[in-house]
Amino acid sequence: MRISILARSLLLSVILVLGTWFTFVFVSLEKIPQCEATVVIEVLNGCGIEGAAEKAASWLTKRGFDVFFIGNADDYGYDFTIIVDRCEDQSKIDHLANAIGTDRIVRQVTSSAFVDATVIVGRDFKRWTVIGQSEL
Questions:
Q1: 22/20 Cα distance (integer angstroms)
Q2: Ramachandran sector of residue 117 (left: φ over 0; alpha: ψ -120 to 50; beta: rest)
Q3: Could you tell me the pTM of the whole model?
Q4: What are 68-105's pLDDT values in tens digits?
Q5: Which of 79, 92, 81 has its CA nearest to residue 128?
Q6: What is the mean pLDDT of residues 41-53?
Q7: Which residue of 33, 47, 58, 71 has the lowest C-beta tally within 10 Å?
Q8: Edge-to-edge strand list for the sheet holding 117-121
Q9: Residues 65, 93: contact at Cβ < 8 Å?
Q10: What CA–CA distances, in Å, run from 67 to 16, 44, 110, 126?
């Protein structure tokens, strides 16, 4: 009889843990911000952590952003992720900033830009890319 009670307790614990995990994943996915207009971005690794730009680009693509280019920034000294605003549509930049959770925006609007914004990935990228993902 003791094994039966122990087995039931273990089974209930597993169900509780799985239920909590599934709730977290599905609730996190429901809260993914979606853009009303297509936002074309480039993602640059500014922290020097291998694969940071690719992981950030994947995270952003899953949230509806159109990643045009992935590469390296001019240096790897960025502690925080910043957005370089290259378009005149503030709503696009606001969508991107809200998705990342940053207010670090540098405005460099130019008519010759191929992208709406540049995301320079800083050392803080795991903070904003880990929400709702298990691969990071």
A1: 6
A2: beta
A3: 0.70
A4: 999 999 999 999 999 999 998 999 999 999 999 999 99
A5: 81
A6: 97
A7: 71
A8: 66-72, 40-45, 117-121, 82-85, 105-107
A9: no
A10: 38, 11, 19, 18
Which tokens belong to 118? Answer: 């540049």
Cross-strand partners of 105: 83
Q: Which CATH class, in words, describes the domain spanning 40-129?
A: alpha beta
- Alpha carbon dihedral 27, 51, 97, 88, in 10-degree steps, equals -140
- Per the listing, tokens 């979606």 go with 34
Residue type, 57: A
> What is the widest separation between alpha-carbon atoms in the chain?
76
CA torsion sign for 78, 81, 82, 87 is positive
From residue 54, give the alpha-carbon distance in Å to each of 50, 61, 102: 9, 10, 19
Look up residue 88 and give its two tokens: 């005149």
Question: What's the mean pLDDT when you consider all of the chain?
Answer: 80
